[in-house]
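User: Show me a protein chain along with its predicted structure.
Assistant: Here is one chain, sequence first, then structure tokens.
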Amino acid sequence: TSPGRRRIVFRPLGTSGGSNASFTFCPEGPAAPRVLCLSNTGRVRLSATRCDGSPVVCP
């Protein structure tokens, strides 16, 4: 997610205020990195690419 975003709050209807967010998971070993994508509507999906479709790059 963006560096300035400290938390994600879900509203009573399930939406998340603010902008979209993503969380990148870079496991050790042979497992492939994954990204958790969160949309403003509250939809969460797990992806093998970044939320915009570009490749995941782990540090």
